[in-house]
Amino acid sequence: MADLTPDLSSRNPDWWRQAVIYQVYPRSFADADGDGLGDLRGVTERLNHLAALGVDALWLSPFYPSELADGGYDVIDPRGVDERLGTLDDFDALVTEAHRLGLKVVVDIVPNHTSHLHPWFQEALRAGPGSPARDRYVFRPGRGAHGELPPSDWQSVFGGSAWRRVPDGDWYLHLFAPEQPDLDWGNEEVRADFRTTLRFWSDRGVDGFRVDVAHGLAKDLTEPLRDIGDIGATGEDALPKVVPGSHPYWDRDEVHEIYRDWRKIFDAYSPPRTAVAEAWVPGARRALYARPDELGQAFNFEYLEAHWDAAELREVITGSLGTAHAVGASATWVLSNHDVVRHASRLVLPPGTDPAAWLLSGGTAPALDPSAGLRRARAATLLMLALPGSAYLYQGEELGLPEVADLPFEVLQDPIWEQTGHVRKGRDGCRVPLPWTVTGPSYGFGPGAAWLPQPASFARYAVEAQAGTEGSTLELYRTALRLRRKLLEGETLTWTPDTPAGVLDFRRTEAWRSVTNAGDAPVPLPPGEVLLASTPLADGKTLPPDTTVWLA
Fold it and tell me: What SS3 state is found at 323?
């Protein structure tokens, strides 16, 4: 077979179109200094793991100064490094080592809000109502006879009102935690400061950006503020029942002018810097963020939220490819991240199960079979890696890690737990630090205990336990990524007609085919040389349930 390996080097401005990007949640990846919290030096020391895995880039979740009111997404200084995680010199060393190993570096930026400890917000509190300092944020007087009521009925994604009153009577907007005041992107000073931030990290060698809450920057702040009323749910992942682009604060049409401005900065570098939007909006609207003159890519959350059902997956895959291609973008695929239940657990939750309720039960209602979850997760991974476009992996999924659903209430750190009055347990279960070795106080994460407790079962998932072990999940990922690089060609697929119920069968090229059995019964194995299978094919004639195979 001819060498079809795509050029993913720094010389190729389109390296991102079919790349595999590995998300690093720094506080849970590796702890080099022994304080229990992962840090940048820990990431640098473990970059060989990513190079051996075969990914093309790493995406660093926030490492900026933060009080961790929201896991680092409450940023005090967007151009600094939290002293618990290291220094700017440590960051520069990480980028240098990543590039030496052939890895690109993508960093998270958080433009919708800052920390309440950000110097701007502290200045706004001191300056008082009507001051220019408050114009950088969304401050408003309250309603009611004495301003005692919030300015509108807008709700926080984390629960409760999105407004918090300050001692002088004004209210400020926080679509997330109260420690995360929203910026006013109608203010030119805000826009100019983020241009500086984009240049700051680009100048330090960053190859791209993941844009947090990309659909939330533009807001309708004309007076009087519009109440949500009965137009729909207000969570960031909701699809409000309003004319697209006209919701008071989600996915407004005006947001795209901001990203067209950013694109000018990205394109001033050689090669141009890349970007991907976290935009919880439906496909056709999501594609707008991925246009070539804006961010270029957007996360595909329909795929992440799809059930393990062949018909539903085929519909989502076809629609996702269509909307991405319509604007000249490549599709994106993701199964896990720092905000959702890990897919080794989520994909085997019975239909209709509320993941939040399952977490609240400590993973007991219902109890899940870890081996069944891992089998389905491996099949889903091979399916995802066969699809045209970019695949985003979340740290630990290459080890087959399940969700840690039974974290004791007293160790929870996610603000969702407190803000919902202990109704939603939050996202800590997917953020438990990684196991690197089969022994040690934190299984090699660091020299001491980790900031979240790891279950004893993590020993069998450790890198040390899986590296070089035939059939392990880690070796499955390594083999799949090595093959994928050789097999990639084009950005389309062709569905095979007349497939059995429950089966996803498509060709990427005449030389490469992916077949997934998402049904309950074995099906005949199509002809062809087996390149890789997510589980052993016992008889070589049938494809078992919850199995994906790549055929030449």
Answer: helix
Rg (CA), the chain: 23
Alpha helices (H) along 103-172 = 119-127
**Nearby residues of 470 by Cβ (< 8 Å), 6 or more positions away:** none
Note the pLDDT tens digit of each residue in 219-276.
999 999 999 874 544 455 554 457 888 899 999 999 999 999 999 999 999 999 999 9
The pLDDT of 65-82, averaged and rounded, is: 96
Residues in the chain: 552
State the DSSP code for 441.
T
Least confident of 226-240, 306-320, 352-366, 413-427: 226-240
CB distance 27 to 442 below 8 Å: no
Do 549 and 534 touch, CB atoms closer than 8 A?
yes
Q: Looking at residues 324-332, what average pLDDT do you find?
A: 95
What are the φ and ψ backbone dihedral angles of 15, each rounded to 5 degrees?
Answer: -55, -30
The amino acid at 297: Q
Beta strands at 20-24 and 390-394: parallel, antiparallel or unpaired? parallel
Cα angle for residues 226, 230, 233 (degrees, 5° grid): 95
DSSP state of 182: B
**Backbone φ and ψ of 532, nearest 5°:** -165, 140
Closest CA to 106 of 195, 30, 201: 201
- pTM for the whole thing? 0.94
DSSP state letters, 412-428 = ---HHHHHTTSS---SG
Asked whether residue 324 carries a pLDDT value surpassing 70, the answer given is yes
**Contacts of range 229-235, beta carbons closer than 8 Å, 24 or more positions apart:** 229/153, 234/154, 234/155, 234/157, 235/155, 235/157
Strands 139-140 and 296-298: unpaired
Of 481, 444, 447, 441, which Cα lies nearest the Cα of 462?
444
Q: Are 332 and 299 in contact (CB under 8 A)?
A: yes
Q: How far apart are CA 435 and CA 458, in angstroms?
A: 6
Position 243 scores a pLDDT of 82
Q: What average pLDDT does the segment 475-500 reach?
A: 95
| Residue whose tokens read 């392990």 | 472
